[in-house]
């Protein structure tokens, strides 16, 4: 029961306070990761996967161990765990990034919508039409909901403070190093593979959650038929099930770092609009509510 209450407290803190505006720990971690990458992945060292493994271990393992030690402190270990969960969650910030895009689209301000969505996706947004902006934002809601919210809760439940720190730092390194280009193809291999492994079970639980809270049969059909064609083993199920649950079509062509990527379609229905961004965010919030209720019931029964 204490675990369920800790999850509830962490989500409540995130909903009330949002992410820290100053000195966010993940920002400091990003600077550390940049220094490690420059040291271990200089032009003369590229091509060595072992350097990426070493850098990952130096970035993640000491901080994970520190989180474990702090969680054992008598009297305040439980508070440390709640604070670390709060710092790792990104539920409120997800809405703070997505809703301005939806508002700009509703007002017909396409340049502002493009600018706003450019903050949250890595693709080129300068030429997107309204449907393209809505599609990119809806995809971000579903995928980042899985990574920054549900998977964070999953690893907190599985392994407490060290689990949530291990996952969140690994996910951050994947976002920084997990590119398939000349610079990161080999150095970022370990970060990408570890993140894939840590997200494998959470992503499928998220896909099931999205399906149960939307158009269930359609979502399950899209998950089964479309997810295997997606290049990410975890984003595929999440986005296919989410698109099916919402009754929209995601995927399609997108420009990343100057290169056109032809992505398979996901979901069924119409292209997304501004309202579908809000519906996707509601789907994430509803899913979090379901997870918390399940945890509370499970804790009560166990107690």
Summarize the structure.
With 303 residues, the chain is mostly helical. Helices cover 71% and strands 3% of the residues.
Poorly predicted tracts of residues: none
Between the first and last Cα atoms, what is the distance in angstroms?
7 Å
Number of helices: 11
* Mean of pLDDT: 93
Question: What structural class should be given to the helix and strand makeup?
Answer: mainly alpha
Strand order of the largest sheet: 1-4
Please provide the ordered H/E string of secondary-structure elements. HHHHHHHHHHEEEEH
> How many β-strand runs?
4
Pathway: Cofactor biosynthesis; adenosylcobalamin biosynthesis
Function: Converts cobyric acid to cobinamide by the addition of aminopropanol on the F carboxylic group.
InterPro entries: Cobalamin_biosynth_CobD/CbiB (IPR004485)
Family: Belongs to the CobD/CbiB family.
Polypeptide structure, described:
It is a multi-pass membrane protein. Belongs to the CobD/CbiB family. The protein is mainly α and 303 residues long. It has one domain (2-302). The protein has eleven helices and four strands, in the order H-H-H-H-H-H-H-H-H-H-E-E-E-E-H. The chain has helices at 2-17, 25-40, 49-71, 77-88, 91-106, 110-117, 130-177, 189-213, 216-226, 235-246, 274-302, and strands at residues 249-250, 254-256, 259-261, 266-267. A two-stranded antiparallel ribbon has the order 1-4. Helix 2 packs antiparallel against helix 3 (49-71). The longest helix has 48 residues, at 130-177. It is globular, with a radius of gyration of 19 Å. The model has no long low-confidence stretch (mean pLDDT 93).
């Amino acid at each position: 029961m204490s675990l369920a209450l800790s999850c509830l407290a962490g989500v409540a803190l995130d909903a009330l306070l949002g992410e820290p505006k100053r000195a966010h720990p993940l920002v400091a971690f990003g600077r550390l990761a940049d220094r490690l990458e420059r040291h271990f992945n200089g032009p003369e060292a590229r091509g060595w996967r072992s350097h990426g493994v070493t850098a990952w271990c130096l970035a993640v393992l000491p901080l994970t161990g520190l989180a474990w030690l702090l969680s054992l402190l008598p009297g305040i270990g439980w508070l440390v765990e709640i604070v670390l969960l709060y710092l790792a969650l990104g539920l409120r910030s997800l809405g703070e990034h997505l809703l301005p895009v939806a508002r700009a689209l509703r007002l017909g301000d396409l340049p502002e919508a493009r600018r706003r969505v450019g903050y949250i996706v890595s693709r080129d947004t300068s030429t997107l039409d309204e449907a393209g902006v809505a599609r990119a934002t809806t995809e971000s809601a579903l995928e980042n909901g899985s990574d920054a919210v549900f998977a964070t809760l999953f690893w907190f439940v599985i392994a407490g403070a060290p689990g949530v720190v291990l996952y969140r730092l690994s996910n951050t390194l994947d976002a920084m190093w997990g590119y398939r280009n000349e610079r990161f193809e080999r150095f970022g291999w370990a970060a990408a593979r570890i993140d894939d492994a840590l997200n494998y079970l959470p992503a499928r639980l998220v896909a099931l959650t999205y399906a149960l809270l939307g158009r269930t049969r359609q979502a399950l059909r899209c998950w089964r038929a479309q997810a295997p064609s997606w290049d990410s083993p975890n984003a595929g199920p999440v986005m296919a099930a989410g698109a099916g649950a919402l009754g929209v079509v995601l995927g399609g062509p997108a420009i990343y770092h100057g290169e056109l990527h032809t992505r398979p379609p996901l979901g069924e229905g119409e292209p997304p609009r501004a309202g579908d961004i809000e519906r996707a965010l509601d789907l994430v919030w509803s899913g979090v509510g379901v997870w918390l209720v399940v945890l509370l019931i499970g804790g009560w029964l166990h107690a």
